[in-house]
Every structure is written in C-alpha cells, then in structure tokens.
Design a protein that fits this description.
With 472 residues, this protein is an alpha+beta fold. The chain has one domain (31-105, 148-318, 360-466): Outer membrane efflux proteins (OEP). It is built from 10 helices and 4 strands. Strand 1 and strand 2 (126-146) form a beta hairpin. The longest helix has 67 residues, at 152-218. It is elongated. It starts with a helix and ends in a 6-residue tail after the last helix. Pfam families: OEP (PF02321). It is a lipid-anchor. The chain crosses the membrane at residues 12-29. Belongs to the outer membrane factor (OMF) (TC 1.B.17) family.
Length: 472
C-alpha cells in the first residue's frame, strides 16, 4: 500500500513539473510594444506619404554610388575595416549572453560523487566517545531547476534578445557610418585634385601675366611696383600648391585607415564626372526615419527596459524550484556498489514566497521603472535629433544648389574681366592692380565652384546616411 501511494505521489509530482515546464516555455522573441513619440512636423517642411525618399533609403549602396573605384574602396572597408570587425565581436558577445539567458529555462545537470563518514558517541554498546561510525558512498546524476511561473526568466531573456538585436543595429550603424565616411573622404580627395589642377592652371596664367608686366615695365609703361606685386601673387599661388598636395596626401592616408589598409595612394576618378542623385528633394516622410539604425537601437533599448521592469515585478511572486533531483547508487561499502539493490533517488522541491528582502525587490523595481522612463526619453530625443539632421541636410543642399547658377555667372564674368583688364592694360587704359585683382578673384571663384560641387555631393551622402541608407 505504501509503495502504491509513493508511486502515485511521484506521478503527480512529475505531472506538475511537466505542466509548469509548459508554462515556462514562453516566446522570448515577442517584445513589448512601446509608446511611439509624436512625429508630427518632425522633419521641417517635409511632405508626408512620399515614395521618393522611402526608395532613397532602401537603395543598395552599390546602386547609390555608381563610381566603380568608390565601390571598390567601400567593399574593401566593409571587409577589412576594424570598426566593422569590432561590431561583429559585439554581436558574438550578445549571442553568447542570449544563449546563456535561454539556457536558464533548462535544468542544471551534473555528475556527483559523495562520501559521508560520521562518528558518534552513542551506539549499541552505550556511550563511547567517537566509538561508533557510519559510512555512505554515493555516485550519480544530480539536477536542479527553477520554474518560470510568472515570466521572470522569460522577461530577462527578452531583455537579452533585445540587446542582441541592438548589436545587429549597431553593426548597421557602423556600416552606414563607414560607407558615408569613405564616400565623403573620396569626394574630398577628388575636390583637392581639382583645386590643385585649377591652381596650377592659374599659375601658368600668372606667369604669363608677370612676363607681360615685365615687358611693359621695360617699355616704361608701368613701374617696378606692378611687376613685384604680380610676382608676389604668383608666389602666393605657388605656395598654396604645397598645402593642397599635403591635404591630398593626408586624405589618401585617412581613406586607407578607414578601409583597413596601410597608408598609400588611392585610385580615384574626377569630381566633375560625379553625378548627384536626382532624388535629393524635400519629399521626406517621417516614417523613413525608422530605417535609421540609431532610432532602432533606441527603440530596442526601450523594449529591453520594459522587459527588465516585468522581470522586477515578477520577482515579488513565489518561486517554484526543484532544489535537488538525484538518481544514482548509494551504499555503505564499495563491494557490489553498482548492483540494483543500491539504486537510490531523491527529489527536493519547494515553493518560496519573498517576505522581507531588505528592500532589494522594491529598490530593483524602482530602478527598472526609472531606467524605462530614461529609455523612453532617449528614444524620443533620438527621433527629434534625426528629424533635425534631415531638415538641416535638405536645406543645406537646397541652398548649395541655388548657388550653381550664380556661381557659373560669377566665373564667366571674372574670366571676361581678366581678359578685358589685360587688354586694357596693354592699351594703357587700366592699371596693373585691376589685372591682379581680377586674376585673384577668378581663382577664388573657381575654387569656390569646386567646393560647391563637393558640398552637394557630401550632402547627398549625408542624407543617404540620415535616412538609414547603406545597410543593403
């Protein structure tokens, strides 16, 4: 009768364990839906429900940057760049943390051997000081397990899963930043090349102008002061060549570091051959900001905070755990130790309700709620900064493009001014200062025109990154 009752008790306990196990198996991938900040008018002068910019953010980087030499540099950077490698190691760390958290649902199992040797002073013969001994040797498998009745372990795993997804977004953020940095550096390098070419062409013209002024001086038409001022302008322009060459060398080295290569030369095309994407316009939908990795990171951090708050709440409820579950052999000696007669099993289970934990549970819950509020504020601020960034880029691009027509007219007028003043100087109708001023202004306008093109290319890269482009 006792054996039958014992079997029934064991069956009931096993059924309870299985039922609790099913309750514990919740889906940790179902993250909480968090409050969404107000995105109305987030992007200044934006046009809602726009398809143009949405497609801009989803264009693969190889399509957005058609320059084959730039594509080669970006590909090399994604493969060898150290920041990308660091991002991958963070993903590996997060994967390990998630694996450990998922494993918390499973029992801890180990092999255990034990020798219990006891000496007593009371026994069959009466009272002998340490005159009686007992010995039990045991060997078997032990296990312990905590049931996740209230979702505490599941909430902790959700937090780890959100952290893992966060590292994936971090990798995307590093990728978009790296692509943007390489593209901007590449365009800057080509701009320096063009400025150097323009400067050298101007030097040739200044040399001819100096020769002309020298001839006029020899003819007594101008003073030596005019010749010396022309030479000074020539020397000043020649000095700028060294600065530009230094900038080119430094820019090449910077690109090499970005792509994980030792400093050296960088193969490139010409800035005048670069085409600015035609989709650069003001049709921005705030929904496209959701493609930004930093926005997704902020949202995932908020979801992680929600999960940790749930875990802190669940800590107030009772905990059901199997403290000891062992199956093996136990005997007083080692002779025939592994015989069926020495089989032994033990199970110790319990339900624990926290009553007084020295304020730890309440304190953890308050901390979790405060961290949740902080994460929500960070999420809102991240969206706000994203809107500002896109707004600034669009207006800066629009302003830069507006300069093109006027810059072309300025350069055209200055080219004519240089020609006219040189002819007037030869005819004695103009002085040398007008010629020098016209030449200096022309060089400045030509360099500014290169900067305008660089600025527009840079803004196109910035908008692509600001909308989350470059992850494909």
């Amino acid at each position: 009768m006792y054996i039958q009752h014992k079997k029934i008790s064991i069956r009931i306990l096993m059924v309870m364990i299985i039922a609790v196990g099913f309750v514990s198996c919740r889906n940790y991938k179902e993250l909480a839906k968090v409050p969404q900040p107000d995105t109305k008018n987030l992007v200044r002068d934006a046009v809602e429900n726009s398809a143009d910019t949405t497609s801009l953010a989803t264009i693969p980087w190889k399509s957005y940057f058609p320059d084959a030499k730039l594509q080669t540099l970006i590909g090399e950077g994604l493969k060898n760049g150290y920041n990308m490698k660091v991002a991958l190691t963070r993903i590996q760390q997060a994967e390990a943390g998630l694996y450990m958290s998922k494993s918390a649902f499973l029992p801890s199992v180990g092999a255990a051997g034990r020798v219990d040797y006891t000496r007593l002073s009371s026994g069959k013969r009466g009272t002998d000081v340490f005159g009686y001994s007992s010995n039990i040797n045991s060997l078997g498998i032990t296990a312990s397990w905590e049931a996740d009745l209230w979702g505490k372990l599941n909430s902790q795993t959700k937090s780890k899963y959100a952290a893992y997804l966060n590292t994936l977004e971090y990798k995307k953020l590093i990728q978009t930043t790296l692509i943007s940095s390489i593209a901007k550096s590449y365009y800057s390098l080509m701009a320096f090349d063009e400025q150097l070419r323009t400067t050298k062409e101007t030097i040739v013209l200044l040399q001819k102008s100096t020769e002309t002024l020298q001839a006029l001086k020899d003819a007594g038409q101008i003073t030596a002061a005019g010749v010396e001022q022309s030479k000074a302008l020539l020397y000043s322009t020649q000095l700028s060549v060294f600065d530009l060459e230094s900038k080119i060398r430094q820019q090449e080295n910077a690109i090499c570091v970005l792509i994980g290569r030792a400093p050296g030369a960088v193969d490139r095309n010409y800035i005048n051959d670069q085409i600015i994407p035609s989709r650069m316009n003001g049709n921005i939908s705030v929904r496209t900001l959701a493609n930004r990795p930093d926005v997704k990171q902020a949202e995932l951090s908020l979801q992680s905070a929600y999960a940790l708050t749930d875990a802190a709440k669940a800590a107030f409820y009772p905990t059901f755990s199997i403290n000891t579950l062992s199956v093996g052999f136990a005997a007083g000696g080692v002779t025939n130790f592994f015989s069926p007669a020495n089989l032994a099993a033990e199970i110790v289970a319990g339900l624990t309700q926290p009553i007084f934990a020295k304020g730890q549970l309440k304190g953890n819950l308050k901390i979790s709620k405060a961290q949740q509020d902080e994460a929500l504020l960070t999420f809102s601020n991240t969206l706000l900064v994203a809107g500002q960034e896109v707004s600034d880029i669009l207006f800066s691009y629009k302003s830069s493009v507006s300069k093109n027509e006027w810059r072309d007219k300025q350069v055209e007028s200055l080219v004519k001014s240089v020609d006219y003043t040189q002819e007037l100087l030869k005819a004695g109708e103009a002085n040398y200062t007008e010629v020098l001023s016209a030449q200096q202004n022309l060089l400045s306008a030509q360099l500014s025109k290169v900067n305008d093109k660089l600025d527009q290319l840079t803004q196109s890269v910035s908008l692509y990154k600001a909308l989350g482009g470059g992850v494909q």
